[in-house]
């Protein structure tokens, strides 16, 4: 239990009054930036990083940890309340969360999301402290063939649950792939669909796509109804406590744990941050709800649908921290920024970090726990307060969302062109909504598509074009078998379902 | 009555805030002298290499008071050529410099960029570091010679991982192939977005060998996970216990340099002032620490010497890129 | 964009009074054909882009065109499938005689509003369970294209004006315009609120966090700053 002693020492270093103050400031700032649509946790870290530079290393790391997790706590808030998630990692939480908000249970949804974020993050951090070598090993056995298998698996598992009409789901996936292909092909250097415009060489930022489709799309969607149909349908006035009662705990706790189980392994490997595990967690809950016959899921909003993705998102963030520290491997843009920050203090994440800078690492790990704790304490009472946002007059609320969304897009790289792209994508988004084309597959395809392509081509490049390399390792074989089994089961279920439906219809005389 | 009171409060608050905010906006815009406010354009996203360099310099300039309010602006994209394009259009703006370096040379050539180093005013080259060729710790290749033999025997089966296409790693791989008697176009080069991913591709035995900055690999080399075969420096570097390519009889060397350029139309006085700022930065105690912390080699170079260096680098890179078939 | 507005205009042009069910469904079906057409057009554009792509020599297979061709194929197939489905549904609606009770579940799901899982669409309780006999797509007929167009125009105006007017003025103008469009009745008060929002963001992100927001024409107008 060497780690435990070290960690306790870390706590003793981190727990000073001034450090606690930094902790609280970081938590509030991180949450505040994370809440704004288009400004998720990555942007919170990028913007607030310089603030930490003036502090001593321990104070800086503590503030850093609370900003990092603060952004993650905050980015689902706007999604739940207004259907405009702050970041792509909050999309999955938005589905059920916003339904709960529309049902008048906004405070409950926010409370669940805060508890989920806390549990997921804490469990992941505990695992990082005690098992980081195992997490690191996971990352080193993964070659391109394994990553490709994983992306294929994620595609099927996610796409199957987020779109019920196959044709419409595929239309959306195709749009997402198209968006994801723009830019210079990293494998060969060929320009694809850039029209020779240098600003498109790096592709279309996923933030532009998310903000365009979700935030701008939502504003336009509301614009189309606010004068005729009273907008979005009435928000029910938020009531109720953010705390969960016993029955709700019984529903939510397994979902928290399932979400965490999805999140932890994904943090260690570079498969696009926390979107994949959050969607997988959401998909699992949806399947389970269908099996249970839970009528709330997809209508009034089910607590599990918020609990699992939120826990998964923060568990990913926690174990990503582990991979970052122990391997020096940035699995997301946020992690890449943090490497830069660590280096400011002469800390080089990697295999020798714990030996070389133990005096900094353990306080950092301790402050992760402290940050999560403070965030829970701050966010539970805040949940009721945030829910009051819905009391703001509708015209100010949506005008504000539009202004902040534009700020978020502009902040990516101070480019007006990004604003135009977000606007165009927002128009596409409102058209898609009008024709009931699902939005989520667009984002999934835009994130996973390029990844799948790169890994496939990389695997074939290493094997010099031999396709058997794709199924050469036990890991890939297991994944593909699992995939085949999932598909077989859902086809059987679908057939049985269809037969049952036909039977019912036959019984009802037309 | 209540309504007008509300209006008065909102109006009052609005005018106060507008005044403060407009003051800030007014001050943040407008041109200043290099000594009052110097903008450094980092042509990469926050967290990238050039961004780190710009922020290190900003920190030192501010603490030493060389520049009252140095600031960093990120203009990412297309290996830095988007930032270069913007600065090239800034005419005689005299309070701004662009961070540049070896990767941009490759970017200009590979992207067929319409602007090049002829379209800006070179100020200085400041710091270099070198790239290193590594193999996994349990690789059969113990020395550079053995690896070169394997590469010559089977270029397709000897995949080399490194940074983005046209970057220094890729150029080095091409030069190494050329020296080993292999057509550079036949190199099985795997491009990764960053050094971290190159490390994992080594650890998972995806690639036979990897190229990246020495800093990216340093800890992995010390811990024995990776074995360093050769360093890309022209001469042995103090403090780095890796023999150079040249020492081992393979004529390959290339530095990952970092430097600063200014808009094209600045007057000789402004150019002299910017050079003076760089000299003060270079002479400062803080900059020594930055160099030591990042393991950067001091490589100060200014004026015509730097201009010639840029010309040579561009020509050399263009040749290697052509050989690589990009 | 043209697909959506044209379809919606078609709909808006129709009388608001109760119409025969069939007519309404036909308009829905025809509107969706625009989507199918758009998907096919995108497939065509991607195909031409892929065919004319400049591929560097000596690129190992599968090259940079491999994946785009797959996507082109996917889009072409689903575009045709969507078109066929739309035509088929419209016909089915006729054949069924328009009584919602006889619609298949699939059809209802595809029509959208009671599909509880086409994500991120607002599914308010009212939408989710349409009253018996109510056409589930009825909402679409009430789509207010004019307000959407004006909102898009306001956002476009913001993008145009940002560098020229600077953040404070253009963001305040955007906020004010949207508040008006979204039904605020107090334009004068809105000016104050808009200025407060824009100024607070300028102070928090520009001054506080060092995000470079454009100053525009405010650049250097306050004399005591330089």
Task: Outline the fold blueprint.
The complex is a heterotrimer of chains A (510), B (326) and C (226).
Chain A: H1 2-14, H2 17-35, H3 41-52, H4 57-82, H5 91-102, H6 106-140, H7 144-162, H8 166-181, E1 183-184, E2 191-192, H9 206-223, H10 246-267, H11 275-292, H12 303-327, H13 333-344, H14 353-356, H15 358-387, H16 394-413, H17 416-434, H18 440-462, H19 474-507
Antiparallel strand pairs in A: 1-2
Chain B: H1 2-28, E1 39-42, H2 49-64, E2 71-74, H3 81-88, E3 96-101, H4 102-110, E4 121-136, H5 144-153, E5 160-162, H6 168-179, E6 189-191, H7 195-203, E7 209-213, H8 214-222, E8 226-231, E9 255-262, H9 268-283, H10 285-294, E10 297-302, H11 303-324
Parallel strand pairs in B: 1-2, 1-3, 5-6, 5-7
Antiparallel strand pairs in B: 3-9, 4-7, 4-8, 4-9, 4-10
Helix pairs in contact in B: 4-11
Chain C: H1 2-13, H2 21-51, H3 66-96, H4 105-111, H5 125-128, H6 138-141, H7 145-165, H8 167-181, H9 187-208
Helix pairs in contact in C: 1-2, 2-3, 7-8, 8-9
Structural class of chain A: mainly alpha
Radius of gyration of chain C: 25 Å
Percent helix range of chain C: 55-70%
- Tell me the strand percentage band of chain C: under 5%
Percent helix of chain A, as a range, is over 70%
Signal peptide (chain B): 1-27
InterPro entries (chain B): BUG (IPR005064), Bug_dom1 (IPR042100)
Protein name (chain B): C4-dicarboxylate ABC transporter substrate-binding protein
Keywords (chain B): Signal
What does this structure look like?
The complex is a heterotrimer of chains A (510), B (326) and C (226). With 510 residues, chain A is an all-alpha fold. Chain A folds into two domains: 2-472, no CATH class; 473-510. Chain A has helices at 2-14, 17-35, 41-52, 57-82, 91-102, 106-140, 144-162, 166-181, 206-223, 246-267, 275-292, 303-327, 333-344, 353-356, 358-387, 394-413, 416-434, 440-462, 474-507; strands at residues 183-184, 191-192. In chain A, strand 1 and strand 2 (191-192) form a beta hairpin. Chain B is α/β, with parallel strands linked by helices and 326 residues long. Chain B has helices at residues 2-28, 49-64, 81-88, 102-110, 144-153, 168-179, 195-203, 214-222, 268-283, 285-294, 303-324; strands at residues 39-42, 71-74, 96-101, 121-136, 160-162, 189-191, 209-213, 226-231, 255-262, 297-302. Chain B is elongated. Chain C has two domains: 2-139; 145-225, no CATH class. Chain C has nine helices and no strands. In chain C, helix 1 (2-13) packs antiparallel against helix 2, helix 2 runs antiparallel to helix 3 and helix 7 (145-165) runs antiparallel to helix 8. The chains are: A mainly alpha (510), B alpha/beta (326), C mainly alpha (226). Chains in contact: A-B, A-C, B-C. The interface between A and C is large, with 99 and 99 residues.
